[in-house]
Amino acid sequence: MLVITSTTTLVPDNPAAAYAAYRQAASAVFLAGTQGLKYKKDHYDLAVDLSKAGLTYIDERADEIVIGAMTPLWQIKISQAIQNFAGGAISKAISDVADKNIQRYGTLGGVISSKAPFSVLLPILLSLHVDVQLQDKGCMSLDDYLHCPPMGELVTGISIAKEAVYTAYKAYRKLPVDEPYLVGAVAMRDDSWRIVVGGRPGLAAIARSASEELTEKGMAVKENVAHLASEELDFGNFGTCSESERRALTIEMVRSLIKSAWKGYNRYVVKK
Predict the structure, then answer these.
(1) How far apart are CA 253 and CA 186, in angstroms?
(2) What's 272's DSSP letter?
(3) Cβ-contact 197, 138 below 8 angstroms
(4) E strand intervals along 162-249
(5) Which parts of the sequence belong to the FAD-binding PCMH-type domain (predicted)?
(6) SS3 12
């Protein structure tokens, strides 16, 4: 485990001050829960501790749920607004995290900014309409942010559009404590579907052609859609799972998730 050290540590009381200090330092790192442990460089001129920057909140509004970057995962998991949204997929995924320290100390900002290829949460969030909020840089869609090169940004939070949607997800692991080697999320809305695959081992990505085919033609083509998702995305050999195994497993996974999302949407969303 890497230990982050710094010549100076700053604990600002707002995100604007945090970002200004970060930009002025020759080398700097944001400390946000367990996020700092991912960095390969272990010493910085400045460590900006975000614990007092006012970024811990869950704000349910008329048309969106806004979550601050420093909100711990456990707090998101137990939020009634999150539990009642999209079939509770976000809360369920956090509960599935075997490492209780990650649940307790990990933060939303750490999940978003780390862009981890084997994250379970990112595919679920990507299946929804999510915007990432950036200090001094406005907002951008989560999909654009994940595939955008580093730009010295400070993630201050995300906004999730409130909508009638149900997301089904699955993460394949050898053991419950292992990092998943394939992750999928399928979201159903009244007018569209979205299929996402992560752990390819590349970043979570939307299977756009498969999503459009399912949206246009419906459940009757779910088998073709499952194969299309496997064919249109890139997969690789990594860890205990090969490229061919990931492709084959994606067909099975997407087929199953389409059925689960359809059942969940009609059982829990339509009846509301």
Answers:
(1) 10
(2) -
(3) no
(4) 165-172, 182-189, 193-198, 205-206
(5) 2-165
(6) coil
> What domain range includes position 83?
58-161
The single residue listed with the structure tokens 């949206």 is 215
In this structure, the answer to whether residues 228 and 209 fall within a common structural domain is yes
Are 232 and 174 in the same domain? Answer: yes
Is residue 265 domain-shared with residue 169, that is, in the same domain?
Answer: yes
Number of H helices, E strands in the chain: 11, 12
Specify the number of domains making up the chain: 3
- pTM score: 0.93
Phi, psi of 48, deg, nearest 5: -105, 105
pLDDT in tens, the chain (272 residues): 456 788 999 999 999 999 999 999 999 989 876 544 444 557 899 999 999 999 999 999 999 999 999 999 999 999 999 999 999 999 999 998 878 888 888 999 999 999 999 999 999 999 999 999 999 999 999 999 999 998 889 999 999 999 999 999 999 998 888 889 999 999 999 999 999 999 999 899 999 999 999 999 999 999 999 999 999 999 999 998 999 999 999 999 999 999 999 999 999 888 76
- Rounded-to-integer distance, Cα 153 and Cα 180, Å: 28
Rounding to the nearest 10 degrees, give the CA dihedral for residues 215, 221, 226, 227.
-120
Place of tokens 């205990």: 240
Nearest CA to 15 out of 2, 3, 27, 32 is that of 32
Q: Which of 161, 178, 198 is the last residue of a domain?
A: 161
Question: What one-letter code names the amino acid at 234?
Answer: D
Q: Look up tokens 């992560």; give the residue.
A: 198
CB atoms within 10 A of CB 43: 12
CATH of the domain at 149: 3.30.465.10
